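Researcher: I'm preparing a figure for a lab meeting and need a structural model of a single chain. I don't have an experimental structure, so a prediction will have to do for now. The sequence is pasted below. Please return the structure as tokens so I can convert it later.
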Amino acid sequence: MAFGSVARRQLQPLLQQAEAAGRPLRELPELRRQALELARALVEPWRQRGRDAAG
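Model: Understood. Here is the structure written out token by token.
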């Protein structure tokens, strides 16, 4: 799976907000939650395909 550029583009605003706050993204609960939601949205269709193929 190659999500690099898509993930980077979607997460960039959150990373910039964390940088502006002077803290890593993982230390900012709301931004971290948003980042995880974006990541899950990218990965879930691939996970679903795997489940469908296995079932």
